[in-house]
Please model this.
Amino acid sequence: MVTLFEQEVGGQRRQSSKGNQLKWYSGKKWYKADYTGYEGLSEYVVSRLLSFSSLDQDMFIVYDTVRIQYGENCFLGCQSDHFLPAHWQLITLERLFWQYYGESLYQSVFHIREPESRAVFLTEQIEQMTGLKEFGKYLSIILTIDALFLNEDRHTHNIAVLRDEIGRYHYCPAFDHGASLMADTGMDYPIYVPLDSLYEKPKAKTLCRDFDEQLDAVEKRYGQHMKFNFTNADVERILEEDVEYPAEVKRRVKELLRRQRRKYQYLFS
Model:
């Protein structure tokens, strides 16, 4: 267990469409408390499974589960290292677009009719603003991760680039998977409801509401750029190594990942 204090609260709360999540920075680590369900376990599982992929280790953030004592309250959640070098900034795509044009990127994307055209617009805008090359490849990777793990909170406030101390831009490691794996047991995915009744419910947010449709759009335009090689046994071992979350939650995650592996067999080598 880690004990955290009010002066360490970072940005007060993380705001997203899935809720306001307490977040702290202490000892060169970031901590996030669960708000809607088992977000911390989702962060941990997804990041561990990304190590069983074709991505280099520096292309994703690794999370661990943790129990947090804050005042009189005890939370489950996750922790991760602070990965930004000194004087670098993490800038969301929404904030970047607003700085350039004074308009919402998210709204601009959804003014366009087709998901593939939305992907092209998003890619061209980011490359123009940042000078980054092959943003379409990066977008394909992010949306592959989100489809496999059902991350329903990947809007333009939740994709970012990095800016160094002299103003150059860099790709940001994949982060923030807390809304994956049906983690919202408080509202959308109660733990007592059978998985069969919930499986079709998660919706995407980046290019459209359908995970498969937006993944098809970026793969058609920019190609497929990652593979996975984890097994059901790997999932079970990763879940067993966590000592914080209850067995019923782990059973759901294990069954959900079995289904997702079957559905996306082409992503596995």
